[in-house]
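ARCHIVE CARD
Drawer: 12
Card no.: 0347
Subject: one protein chain, sequence and derived structure
Cross-reference: see card 0346
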Amino acid sequence: MGDKLLLAPLGNPRRALEVGCGTGIWAMSGTHVHEEVVLILTFSSDFAEAYPNTMTIATDLSPVWPDTKPSNLSFEIDDCCSDWVYPKNSLDYIHVRQMYGSVADWPAFYKECYDHLAPGAYLEQAEINPHPTSDDDSVLPGTPFHDAGQLAIKCGNAFGKSLMIEETMEDDIRRAGFVEVVKTTYKWPIGAWSNDPRLKELGRWNGLHWNEGLEGWTLRFCTKYLG
């Protein structure tokens, strides 16, 4: 995203909501990142600081957020899959990121977003497709990355919460009533193989992401839901 915090063309939003904020850890790349040092920030805190006149609410199922925060930011325990408690038409911006595998009924979720956003407001969602692909079609059946992607599909189906929302969210969002829907796709290499300096840096971090995360992503799914 070119070090951008968000893509929606916001003006002066009054109320914003981040759904599924988690710990909010965001490792900023570009000028903020070096091989030895990573500046750790939270989206909600960054957003609240960038929009000091906006009341920002960040929610998750568990209170794992930081203790320190800007005065215009509040953290709340909430289940986005339950009925929303906010007034209808009261939000100017909703931010959703990496909620794949967290929602069983995405059309219902998008309907809640639509009903609670004010006219002219924005929903922005950033998701990862866990099924790796390649420009040269080298990720073939039987290769580790292809098999990992197929495993993700099976796990989501068995779990009842799809991991492939990236492939369907544009149509689901339109069906909820949203207009002027824009989908922007970014490459995220796995490993530092790219000749492009920016993609090489992203790939280096994503390779670490895969090396340290793969066991945790798959262990419970495979043992509890796939036997």
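Annotation on reverse: Confidence is low (pLDDT under 50) at residues 25-41. The chain is about 30% helix and 15% strand.
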